[in-house]
Amino acid sequence: MQEIASLLTPSKLKLQDLLLDPNNPRFLDLGAQSGRTPDSRFNEPGVQRKALEQLKETRFDVASLRDTIKTIGFLPIDRIVVRRWQSADGRTTKYVVLEGNRRVAALNWLLELHEAGTEQLTPEQLENFTNLDVLVISDQADPRVGQWIVPGLRHVSGIKEWGAYQQAIAIKTLRESGMSPQEAAQSIGLSMRSANKLWRSFWALEQMRNDEEYGEMAQENLFSYFDELIKQPSLRAWFGWNDNERKFDQPEKIREFYGWITGGPDEEGEGTERKIERAIDVRDLAKIITEPRALAILRRSSLEDANATFKSIHPDDWRAYVANVDSMLAALSPDSLRRLSPEDMGSLVALQDRVQQVLRDRERLAGA
User: Fold this and answer.
1) Could you say which DSSP state residue 135 is in?
2) Cα Rg of the chain, angstroms
3) What's this model's pTM, rounded to 2 decimal places?
4) Which of 139, 165, 300, 331 is deepest in the core (most CB within 10 A)?
5) 123 and 16 both lie in a single domain
6) Are 17 and 146 part of one and the same domain?
């Protein structure tokens, strides 16, 4: 196969000349595998309108991309890739988007809002949003290159996303540069809620860094522990999180937490084993702190024993688990169902057998 780079030519195109791909592979997640739109109809207003509305679905997160573009402008760092499209009579030439459908949808959405009067775009913004640097793929390229290989390079092998800690540093830097919390969040495509959580988690880890005893243990890999802690309102309250001071106001409790996630030192200065091995296990603290006996067990033993103590005092309601399984199965998309492996199918069959056995046992006991 010819090198892909040699098939791409830089060009400057108008937004109005770009066509969203109505057969975008993303739409398979919507269960839209049948009824592919013929290439000859791509330019029809109804076809383009439907493609835009599909991309506005929450799962594609175009709204946050739209807000980011509005805040910082459209940056041609990662250029849109298109192929040439001609009408059957040869009179109309447009360009179908192969890579960048979300960005083109976000730009069209912004123009829609501007034309409706709900957004006020400046002449500079309109110029930035409607005159785009793109890469045009050669007419001689294998169609598979445009439809699957070019998008696949981005979305499968893809650009590695920043981790939560890197995002938190970005939010901190942008806010300290003078941006408002909302501007900082939109600049890197985050919701205000997510950005505020990262902001608090960053300062929570910084507080540990400044601790005389635990500071040297406060490494980046502990960020996710504070991220989990900050997520839980009950834990924020129990440890005394203060938004104004950007720190916890319960020093004894938070230092105890440091010990649980690092494993030391004890009263004799010796290192101890970590009580909370994984960040996700911080979630268990939300219930343990409500039960003094379970909390006492955590302090002198382990998280596992504390959880066992809590469960013995507060037996689980099996109905909640059944409802959770039911909602998860109901949410499986057609694409997810098609991708089920033999092991996945085996798990579902085992679950089915278990449910049937429970129903048979119930029927037998009811008739006894």
Assistant:
1) E
2) 27
3) 0.59
4) 165
5) yes
6) yes
CA-CA distance, 199 to 205, in Å (whole number)? 10
| Domain presence at residue 289 | no
What is the arrangement of strands in the sheet containing 8-14, beginning at the earlier edge strand? 8-14, 131-137, 80-86, 93-99, 18-19
What SS3 state is found at 133? strand
Distance between CA atoms of residues 1 and 142, nearest Å: 9
Parent domain of 118: 4-158
Residues 266, 282: contact at Cβ < 8 Å? Answer: no
Position 147 pLDDT exceeds 70: no
Count CB neighbours of 42 within 10 A.
19
pLDDT value, residue 33: 46
On the question of pLDDT at 237 being above 70, the answer is yes
168 and 152 belong to one structural domain: no
Judgement on whether residues 100 and 245 belong to the same structural domain of the protein: no
- Residue located via tokens 């969040």: 185
pLDDT tens digits for range 16-26 = 999 999 988 77
Both 337 and 258 in one domain: the answer is no
Last residue of a domain, one of 237, 254, 274: 274
In this prediction, residue 335 carries a pLDDT of 75
